[in-house]
Amino acid sequence: MIETLISILKMNTLDGLLKKIDNAPALDFGTIINDCVELYKKVWLKGFLMVLFIVIAGILIGLFFSAIGTLALKQNYLKTGLILSPFQSFIL
Questions:
Q1: Cβ(68)–Cβ(90) under 8 Å?
Q2: Burial class (CB in 10 A: 0-12, 13-18, 19+), 33
């Protein structure tokens, strides 16, 4: 346990840091940029699908409420009162 603490403390010194830098593999910027582009593609696709879902849901909700409105206009509910049977036939 004490040896582990000593090795951890040695790693935090300047010499330990320089040794880690010297032993680290060289950075390949082609791989780094490629990984960034692939991550961007994944995030963009998920965002596009979310926007597409929201637009489709909005269109469906709009069509539903406009259908309810046209059914209400087909009846002259100001003269006869509101009759719910067309709404029931639309839903069923």
A1: yes
A2: exposed
pLDDT at residue 82 in the model: 62
Token pair belonging to 45? 């696709």
Token pair in block for residue 44: 């963009």
Instruction: Kindly report the pTM of this predicted structure.
Output: 0.48
- Mean pLDDT, consecutive 10-residue stretches, the chain (92 aa), reads 65 75 86 94 94 96 82 61 66 59
* Three-state secondary structure string covering 20-54: HHHHCCCCCHHHHHHHHHHHHHHHHHHHHHHHHHH
Cα torsion 17, 18, 19, 24 to 10°: value is 90
What's the rounded Cα separation, in Å, for the pair 63 and 67? 6
